[in-house]
C-alpha cells in the first residue's frame, strides 16, 4: 500500500514552514528532497566509515570501498541493466553527457557527421554537442515536438540519415513532462545502425526503467533528482558501446600502469572514473535508490499519475492560465504562463505562500523558443506531494491572477 503521509514523515524538510506557512515543495524537477535514511547514511559514511576508496588496505578504506562499489549493483538493479560492470558512477547527468561526447563521440565523429536531437532537450544534452560542433564540425539535427509537447518517434527515426552517428534524446521533458517513446526510437535507430543516448534525469524519477526493454545504448540518471545527494549519478552503457569508449579524464584510479613514457588504462568502468569520486554522495545515492525500489517504482508512478490527473483538471480549469505541454501520458510536471504576469513574479508570490516552484527557461532555451514563451513557471511533483498541495498551488495562482491578471 502507498501511504503518502508515511512517506512525507520521512522527509524532515517537509515539516518546516516557509514564510510562515507549511512548505509546499513543487520544485522536484530541479532537485528532490532527501529522506531520513539518506541523511543517516551520509552521517554514517562520514562519521563512522570514511576513508578514500580503492586505495587503502586498512579497515575504513575497505568499508568505504565496499559501500561505494555496492552502488554499481544498485544502479544496475534500478535500471535492469544486464551487468553492474556496465555502470559508470559520476557526479550526475551533465558529467555523463560530456563523457559520452568526449569519450565515445569525439574520437569517432568526422566533420559533417550528425547528431540527432529533439527540441525537448535540456542544455546538458545540447551544449556538449555544440562543443563538438565548434571543435570538430559536427552537425546538430533537430526534431521538433508538436504544440502539445509530444514527440513523434517516427520523426526522430526519419531524421536519421547516412551521416548520423548518434541519436540523443530525453526520456521525459523537464519542462512539459512529455514522456518520449524511447523504445520506438531505439528500434528504428538500431535498424539504421545508429546508437541512442537517453537522458534519463527525469524519466527514471517518475517511472520504472528497464534499459534492456528500451533497447537504447546509453542511459544517464542523476542522484539529486532521485531523492539522493547532489553530485551523484550514473550512466549505463551497453557492452558494445563501452568497448568503444576512450578515456575521458586522466588521473588516479583509471590507470593500470604509468611510466615516464607510457600509460595503460584500467578496464571499464574504472577507466571512466578518474580521481577521487564523490564517495559519500554516491553511497547516499545508493541508499536513495534502495529507498525508491523498496517503495516500488510502479507505486510511485501510480501515485504521481493521480497527482497529474488532479493537477491537470484543476490547472486546466483556470482559463487565464496557459499550460505548456499537455501530451497524453505526460508526467506530473506542469509549466505555465499567465498573461500580464512574469514567471518570476508568479514564483515570488507563490513563495510568499510557502510554495516552491521554478521560474525561468529551465535549461531548455531551444524548447522555450519553439513554444514561443520567454519564461515559464514550473510546478513539478514528486513522491511526497499530495492533492491538498495541488489545491494550495491553485489558491496561490488565483492570488496571482487577482494581483496581476
Ligand atoms: N537533463 C534533464 C532533463 C534535467 O532535468 C537535468 C537537471 O535539471 C539535467 C539533465 C542535468 O542534470 P545534472 O543536474 O545531474 O547535471
What descriptors fit this protein?
binds pyridoxal-5'-phosphate; 2 domains; 7-stranded mixed β-sheet; alpha/beta; 4-stranded antiparallel β-sheet; Cysteine desulfurase; 405 residues; Aspartate Aminotransferase, domain 2; Aspartate Aminotransferase, domain 1
Helix-strand layout with pairing:
Layout: H1 4-9, E1 17-18, E2 21-22, E3 24-25, H2 36-47, H3 59-79, E4 87-90, H4 93-105, E5 114-118, H5 127-136, E6 139-143, H6 153-158, E7 164-170, H7 182-191, E8 196-199, H8 203-206, H9 211-214, E9 218-222, E10 233-237, H10 239-242, E11 255-258, E12 263-265, H11 279-295, H12 297-316, E13 321-324, E14 333-338, H13 343-352, E15 355-356, E16 358-360, H14 365-371, E17 376-380, H15 387-404
Parallel strand pairs: 3-15, 5-6, 5-7, 7-8, 8-9
Antiparallel strand pairs: 1-2, 4-10, 9-10, 11-12, 13-14, 14-17, 16-17
The chain binds pyridoxal-5'-phosphate.
Pfam families: Aminotran_5
EC number: 2.8.1.7
Protein name: Cysteine desulfurase
CATH superfamily membership of the largest domain: Type I PLP-dependent aspartate aminotransferase-like (Major domain)
Oligomeric state of the chains in view: single chain
- Rg from C-alpha positions? 22 Å
Small ligands present: pyridoxal-5'-phosphate
Count helical runs: 15
The share of residues in helices is: 40-55%
Query: Which class do the helix and strand fractions yield?
Result: alpha/beta
Beta strands, count: 17
Low-confidence stretches: none
Total tally of structural domains: 2
Widest β-sheet, arrangement of strands: 4-10-9-8-7-5-6
Largest sheet: 7 strands, mixed
General shape: globular
Range of strand content: 15-25%
